[in-house]
Amino acid sequence: MTADVCIVGGGFSGIATALSLAERGYTVVVLEAQRIGWGASGRNGGQMIAGISGEHRIESQLGEAGRKLLADIRYLGNDIIESRVERHQIRCDLKRGWMEVAARPRHMQALRAYVDERLAAGDGDDLELVEPADMERVIGSRLYHGAMVDRRSGHLHPLNLCLGEARAAAGLGVEIFEESPVTDVVGGDRPFAATAQGRVEAASIVLAGMMEPKFETGPLNGLLFPTGSYIVATEPLPERVAREINPQDLAVADSNVVLDYFRLSADRRLLFGGRCNYSNRDPRDIRATLRPRLTQVFPQLEGVALDYAWGGKIDIVLTRVPAIGRREPNVYYMQGYCGHGVNATHIAGQIVADAIGGTMEKLDLFEKIRHVRLPVGQFLGNQMLALGMLYYRLRDLL
Ligand SMILES: Cc1cc2nc3c(=O)[nH]c(=O)nc-3n(C[C@H](O)[C@H](O)[C@H](O)COP(=O)(O)OP(=O)(O)OC[C@H]3O[C@@H](n4cnc5c(N)ncnc54)[C@H](O)[C@@H]3O)c2cc1C
Predict the structure, then answer these.
(1) What's the 335 CA to ligand 1 centre distance in angstroms?
(2) pTM for the complete prediction?
């Protein structure tokens, strides 16, 4: 079959791009190896956080152009999500309000500096600092040394968002094929993506999200190192307890590099996520590993039932800047959001859709980023990354 654009991957990257393209009148085919949202997009913590990872690196490498880029895109993903949720009536429990809590006193200084910087740049109106003595107003935990609330970020049910956007895309004519693993992607004069059943010929191909190493050639070689992140969901909490631990129903992430993140679901479960180990292997018992962290943050939840536990892979690039660009002139890629992908995938989808339409400005900037590569193969690279994470965890604890 033929289309203007063939997208490989049916997570946020693929579906957000498909929707951006379909809104502009392109014919689009999405090929997904499993089910829509099966990867990180359907498993994540649902924290919709402004900006993208690696902002300091973007500023230091691109200077003024980088600062302008960051200001332009900071809330772009959030805005796209909010407008799609409204336009397509997607039921994904979207709520505004996200908070970074200072795990160490020195982290509060960094939050203050960040808010000052944003206020000086004229876009800090949605940020609010919470002083250590005032923390009870925002969280029922004594563990933290202050916080920053971002009222324009928030949280949502990620799988329902992904499925809702896929439905909206299908409504605009996007053809979505599940259980269709792509086995080959060829650029050149007659680009196509092949599956066991056939091929899609398209003017442009988009590798949307983390792919198997065989597709990670050229600029993607040695770039991406997946690492595990895990979440537990408690039993539904009594309203009084939910209000006590999270009185403003905020999504919360702490300021450590190897961080804890949590929020309440619409049915008042605490979804508590974090990293379980530094071996880069899935833990044998996610509940047993995450429970001590959960009760350290909220001792009042000692003994609470953990009804669900799951994990997924976070796509880490060493520079922390998402990798958005072209493997060949008509084969695009987008990946490496470093655990910060709800907003960033939607930004990337728009940037790639713009580029396919001939507006290259933002894609060009991302392509200029000099990434760090590990020319050591996936296994060794993952072990090195695990060691690096352990280093950061120890540093967090100091
Ligand atoms: C446990 C966890 C918690 C997280 N929490 C947050 C959070 O709270 N906030 C946040 O912003 N980010 C979070 N993230 C990160 C975020 O989920 C990801 O950055 C984002 O979902 C990436 O979307 P994606 O579409 O690029 O990748 P994915 O969702 O992984 O989608 C890629 C898709 O491509 C498909 N695919 C792969 N190879 C092929 C092939 N050969 N042919 C066809 N299809 C293929 C896969 O099946 C998959 O469905 C979290 C991640 C994890 C794992």
Answers:
(1) 9
(2) 0.94
